[in-house]
Amino acid sequence: MPTQDCSTPSPVPGPLAGLKVLELGQLIAGPFAAKTLADFGADIIKIETPGTGDPLRKWRLLKDGISVWWQVQSRNKRSVALDLKQPAAQDIVRRLASESDVLIENFRPGAMEGWGLGPDALLKLNPRLIMLRISGYGQTGPYRDKPGFGVVAEAMGGLRHLTAEPGRVPVRVGVSIGDTLAALHGVIGILLALQERQRSGQGQVIDVALYEAVFNCMESLLPEYSAFGAVRGAAGSALPGIAPSNAYRCKDGGYALIAGNGDSIFKRLMNTIGRDDLCTDPSLADNAGRVAQVEKIDDAIGQWTAERTVGEVLAALDAVAVPAGRIYTVADIAADPHYQARGMLNEVRMDDGSLLAVPGIVPKLSRTPGSHRRNAPQIGQDTDAVLREMGLSPDQIKALKDQGIVAGASQ
């Protein structure tokens, strides 16, 4: 894997260089949105609770007491430790917000207002401020005050109902997909608002609900219900209404994912598996006809794959340009030459000198690509520097620390 030394800044400024972002969120959705902006050059000032910091620091597998996930979620950010329950800390946030382009938060609705940091207050101080607010159910509506995590949003958004084998209990996607979808919708909102601000000079509030971000990706779910009363259900590894597209068991016990649903692709697939009768059957010439006979098609493909290993199946289908692939584990990902060639497997040097593999940056820009400029910070690592940038003297910073309002990395 290529090694990237994060102590050396990228020579090319990112497309968001000069954008100042204040991050008040924690865990996944808000910080993922900020991380995406940070990857492309934005200056992210992350506010954390003194002593404990973002709970994600302690989630899943830890190295030297810190989550390795943290090294991805908070790369390129600066950490300022503030006790937001104290009025003086709230004043610092107001000062930072008055100088920022974007503020990101993912607290429960009403929390920011309770600290005197709601949109009415902050947009009055800085009319150009763009506020991204991510919550389970949004800032309005009868559910706004309910606690909402990604797993609940995924269910409410319609995704969980579809993720199962027919007749079996619905399962969750193995990552926090609801939070990530909300974060990406938030980033889109920020970029739209920045574009509009160039014309109007005004900021605005972006209200992203986790369940709505999931629902937005549910394709034909609602119109099919509206037009036909159809309630789409779980279909396992198949893709209802599109055929053939499924996972087929192979001789070595693995599965090959085969998508032969294009008309010409289907013909090549049938020729390859020795089923010329299906290739030339006029009733299977288009997707509608294939959907009506999907069980017969799946059975034919399944018989063919059962006599071959996954590797043999993929080699045969690659040769005739039929889309197919294997189910990757992370070990497969780490060894894959395409991931490596695309710069998606990077090694960064940690503060203790060890190397850690982290995902590369997406999307890829040809002239102003994103970069990993610095490692994820310690709690309060940048408190002093940020307060100095605000104009505070060393004595003022010390007084704030003595009162427990702020904390540095050593505290």
CATH H-level superfamily title of the largest domain: Crotonobetainyl-coa:carnitine coa-transferase, domain 1
- For the termini, the CA-CA separation is 36 Å
Query: What is the residue-mean pLDDT, rounded to a whole number?
Result: 94
Described by strand count, sense and barrel closure, the largest sheet is: 7 strands, mixed
Please indicate the percent range of residues in DSSP E strands (runs of 2 or more).
15-25%
C-alpha Rg, in Å?
25 Å
Q: Which stretches are low in confidence, meaning pLDDT under 50 for 5 or more residues running? A: none
Spatial strand order of the main sheet: 9-8-7-2-3-6-15
Q: What overall geometry do the principal axes of the alpha carbons give?
A: elongated
Briefly note the CATH topology name of the largest domain.
Answer: Rossmann fold
CATH architecture of the largest domain: 3-Layer(aba) Sandwich
CATH domain class name of the largest domain: Alpha Beta
* Structural class computed from helices and strand pairing: alpha/beta
Helix content: 25-40%
Q: How many domain modules?
A: 2
Q: How many H/I helices? A: 18
**What is the total tally of β strands?**
15
